[in-house]
Every structure is written in structure tokens, then in C-alpha cells.
Amino acid sequence: EAAQKGGYDHYMRKEIHEQPSALRQALGSRVDVNAGTASLDVDFPQGYLESIQEIQLLAMGTSYYAGRYAATLFESLADVRATPIMASEYSYTGGRDPWRTLSIAVTQSGETADTLGALREASAAGARTMGVTNTLGSSVTREADDALFIRAGPEIGVAATKTFASQVSTLALLAIAVGRERGALSAAAAREHLEDLTGLPGAIQQVLDEEDRIRETAHELADSDAFFFVGREYGYPVALEGALKLKEISYDHAEGFASGELKHGPLALVTPETPVLAVLTDGAHPQETLNNVAEVQARGAPAIGVTSGTLEGGTLDEAFEVPDAGIFEPLVANVYFQLFAYHIANAKGRSIDKPRNLAKSVTVE
Ligand code: G6P
Q1: Where do the SIS domain residues begin and end (predicted)?
Q2: CA–CA dist 172, 161 (Å, integer)
Q3: Is 88 near ligand 1, meaning CB less than 6 Å away?
């Protein structure tokens, strides 16, 4: 087993460090930056992409947060309504036109019962379906009309890490392809986003190189009462994912909020013992979020921010930078959150790869 961990103490840390290579696999042969195109081996019927009115992202756990990130990508790059739906709640939603809906099940394992259940319902109602998965031959690939592989390589740690980055990036390629097909995205804009995407392996490597510093911060804050993560737009799903990661493996209380939501309730929980971690990069409206962060600092909470390095006003207690990656900067910021969660859990001696009560793949509803 030690050999399989490739010199790392835990699969999770190994998988965090595998993100640059996983993304090269997901993107490499599919992207032609100069042409502004992404080829995905999915043959939609002629005219289908122009006809769709809604894209649904059906998923659970980390995959659901990847679906939330992707929903915003579809809305902004392809100008199509996109709705992330917690798959276990799918049965209780209505008012849709399935004939003009593309329902995408986002599932690393391809076996999550809640997600497969939602996919079956969508299909029965007449939607075209697609599985976005890491697992060749999984149930989702057999049941969906189309399959799109995220090519992340095996992920053993129960807490998903590299697959989140690969899900978002692969769905970004789809959003770009759909945006081009629907005439919503210019060739120049497509090129810019593809350049940002192909730069992700290098950008994430720079974050990984900062591991010592994030470990120190994690150790300083390890005994806090609770941890709050905040962000806007693309920073919001990353705040939710950052909190999920921390609670899964450290068993500490952690919650993610839209930064604008803080003053509508969560602020009552803020004390000097509740650090707030904020996504303050491009793609996450850093200046607005910084105002929200000032409110928690006024209550004595330590503020840790991940920035693009261009913030004006406001002083963070600790700042971490990400390289330029446009609207994918929050995805890069997420790597700091993964390392933060890992080092808090490790300092507490938790069972990182197999947290109590959790399973890698949940095959019951
Ligand atoms: C479980 C795992 C999570 C995962 C979720 C969805 O809860 O512990 O890490 O995000 O299932 O899994 P999937 O395979 O559908 O992506």
C-alpha cells in the first residue's frame, strides 16, 4: 500500500498533488487553443444544442458543487439556463419541459444511487441524458444517452479532491462547445477561456508549492470552534466545497456561505474563534466579498483570503495568492482549501482516507 501512495502519507494528499497531471489528461488532447475549440466525442443530434432550454446538473456531495460551478459556466458562456439539483431532491422538483432539457448526471463513481435515480427520472420524462464520470463502464455510462469522461485516474481517498477539478474543467469544455454552437461565445472569448483552462496545471502547481505556508496556517487555527468559508459566483461553490472537505475529514464544524448571506444570519455565529476563509480571486467578485470579510473582522474573526493579488483596501490576517486563471481562479483557490482541510485533519490524527461514517460511493438512496 505504501508503494501505491507514492511516498505520500495518505491517498488524499497524493490525489491533491495529482491535480496538475489529472487536468492535463482531461484537457490535453481535447483542446485546440488556437482554433478556440474543444472536441469531446459526444455526438448530439443535428440542431439539438440550439434547441435546448435548460441544462440540469444532477449530483451529490462534491460532484454537486462541481455541478454548481458548471451551472454558472453554462449560463455565462453558453447563455442557457442551467440548474444544479441535489439529485436526492430531484423527484420533488417540477414545472419543466423535459423535451428541451439536457440532464447531466455528475458522478465520479458513476454509481451513486441518488444520482442514478434522478437520471432515470429525467430520462423517463423525456430529457436527453449525459453522464459525466471518472469510471469507464459504470452504471451511469450504460444508462445515459451520452458519457463524458473526466480522465482523473483512480481516486481512493473517500473525500473527493482531484475529481472536483477534473469535473469542473471537463464541464467547462462542454460549456465552451455549447456556447460556440449556440453562437453565445465568440471565438476570441473561447480561446481566452481555453488558455486559462490549459494553464490550470501550472497554476495549481504553484499553489501546491505553497503547501508549507498553508500547513502552518492550518496548524495555527486547528483548535478553532468552527470554520466559515465564503465566496461569490464561482467562489460560492468553492466555499461550499471547502467547508465540506474540512468537515468530512477533520470532523470540525464548517459551513460555506455566499458571502452576501453572512449578514442574514451566519454573522451571529462569528466570534474570534471562528476563522473565515474567503475566495477573493477573479471570478468571485473580490471587492464585494472583501466588504463582507470586513464585517467578520469587526467581530474579531481571523480572515484568511485567497486572492489574485490585486485587492485594494482591507487587510487580511493571512493572504494566499493564485496565478492568473480568469474565471477558473476559484478552482485554483480550492486547492488551498483542500490542503487546509488535510493539514487540520492530519494534525488531529484523523482517519483521512476513510473518515468515520462515510463511504466513497453511496449506492443506497
Ligand atoms: C459520497 C462521497 C463523496 C462524493 C459523493 C458523490 O458521499 O463520500 O466524496 O462526492 O458520494 O459521489 P459521486 O461518485 O457520485 O461523485
Answers
A1: 44-184, 217-355
A2: 17
A3: no
